[in-house]
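Priority: medium. Attachment 1 of 2:
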């Protein structure tokens, strides 16, 4: 091999190694919204109003609309990693989101491993559960079953088998009489706008 061919092969191998490294950098399954709620330190509904790069993060300025879970404070910005490969979340300006994240030194951080969806993408059952159901089920575990068999050896867990559908995301895992089980959320049928904020 010539020197140039050898250099090219070396660079190509390094490139493939870097691509594989980036692909492996952020691995997590989309969580059930109740699990994301219970695991998060802070859960809010907010509108994204600005974006700025700060050191090794992206800062999104927000207007907080509703606090679902958090110490009593107002959040003015969310921070995330600069790329999806590093689990960074990409947000659209002037759009409302549900954010589930962590607090570090007074800053809210969100990642792809959380449940950070546009508010309009949430179902009515999910919006209602944010204030009335998820918190009451935080003593329960949600076990994500990706292939059968998926045995449960405890009574404080719900098996989530939501293959190819979003139906399970509309349920809440609630403890009753000492054991946990899936429960549906009854939402009223109304004509016109109905706001669960």
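Attachment 2 of 2:
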């Amino acid at each position: 091999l010539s020197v140039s061919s050898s250099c090219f092969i070396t660079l190509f191998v390094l490139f493939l190694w870097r691509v594989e490294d980036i692909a492996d950098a952020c691995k997590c399954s989309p969580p059930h919204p109740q699990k994301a709620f219970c695991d998060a330190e802070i859960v809010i509904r907010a509108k994204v109003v600005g974006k700025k790069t700060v050191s090794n993060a992206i800062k999104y300025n927000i207007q907080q609309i509703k606090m679902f879970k958090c110490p009593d404070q107002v959040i003015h910005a969310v921070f995330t990693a600069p790329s999806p490969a590093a689990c960074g979340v990409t947000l659209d300006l002037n759009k409302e989101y549900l954010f589930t994240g962590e607090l570090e030194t007074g800053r809210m951080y969100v990642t792809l491993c959380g449940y950070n969806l546009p508010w309009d993408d949430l179902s009515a059952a999910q919006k209602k559960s944010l204030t009335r159901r998820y918190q009451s089920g935080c003593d329960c575990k949600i076990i994500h079953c990706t292939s059968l068999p998926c045995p449960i050896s405890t009574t404080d867990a719900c098996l989530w088998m939501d293959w190819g559908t979003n139906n399970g995301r509309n349920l809440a895992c609630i403890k009753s009489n000492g054991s946990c089980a899936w429960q549906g959320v009854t939402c009223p049928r109304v004509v016109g706008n109905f706001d669960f904020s």
